[in-house]
Amino acid sequence: SLVTILSRSHADRNVYPSAGVLFVHVLEREYFKGEFPPYPKAGDPSNDPITFNTNLKGYPDRPGWLRYIQRTPHSDGVLYGSPTAEHIGKPTVIEITAYNRRTFETARHNLVINIKAAEEFPLPYQAEFYIKNMNVEEMLASEVLGDFLGAVKNVWQPERLNAINITSALDRGGRVPLPINNLKEGVYVMVGADVPFSSCLREVESPHNQLRCSQEMEPVISCDKKFRAQFHIDWCKISLVDINKVVPVYVTRPEPGTGILPEFGEYKPPSESLKSRDYFSDFLVTLAVPSAVALVLFFILGYTMCCRREGVEKRNMQTPDIQLVHHSSIQKSTKELRSMSKNREISWPLSTLPVFNPVSGEVVPPIHPDNYETTSMPLMQTQANLQNQITIPQQRPSGEDLKTAVL
Predict the structure, then answer these.
(1) Where does the Dystroglycan-type cadherin-like domain start and stop, copy by copy (predicted)?
(2) Which residue of 48, 176, 264, 286 has the fewest C-beta atoms within 10 A of its own C-beta?
(3) pTM for this one?
(4) pLDDT tens track for 245-262
């Protein structure tokens, strides 16, 4: 079977937002459902996943002031942002392409944004609130945003009040919330008015509340109860800006020149007959200095290892005789054990025989005289000598007392 990807274009849609006022445009999935073949009627129960791609016509992305969000393919997309004054009178064409992720069909139409000038732009008094229990797409809903502006107007009492901008807390460096307890990302909402800030909004600037904020405690705000029913505001993050008191910062740019290089006179190339240079002295210095240093280090190391070394005779002279005899006997015993390992038929060495008599407990007398040098005595003894040292107990069948025979 052959899958055909169809695309359908639509007529342009025109909108007229004001500069400095929040612009919100919802891309409704129901609107695009009827544009995909076989063109079902409105209210059809089909729920195909649909995503949107938005870009400025002729460019790969949207304008800098315009943002887009769609949480899932089964939810509507939202274009939102605050137009700037430099785009007044210039139509901004946004290409919107809808993709049906089940059938791979597309539908496209253009959104023409005609930005017009506001009556008073910008509003002189601006306040930014941080709402902890909202996501940006929830706050962009007209009824939710209207409820928030109504609460602000009740507290501020201005003649003109506009929403200027909405920003997700994730765009301000916030963390993605854990998927527990219905936690939200948080959203910053900036509003502007034509009258100074009310006393309630000024309460957050009091020293007492500033101290509580520094201690990560909630400040005491008298008008918080007017928001608490629906919006949980972090009053420590509120920002109050009076544009009339803001000192403008001007960036001085250098004036562009004529593009003509200054006069440096006639070009004089270097002479063709260059003076030859002798590099032999440099070569000697490069090799001689490291070689001399290496030679000196070699002699110092050789003198230290050969002439300053402690000799074996000097070490033996400084070592006590009893310690030398002890180590000598250990060395001889080690050599004897190594030679025994080659011949397993040799009798057990003397060092493995018992020192005490197994019956009487008396010390077995040595088999050599006292003046015999023990350091040169062999560890191996004959079986005849072994019988002279150990007294073996014997038991008679008549039950008499045990007697020992010493040969």
Answers:
(1) 14-122
(2) 264
(3) 0.57
(4) 776 666 666 777 777 777
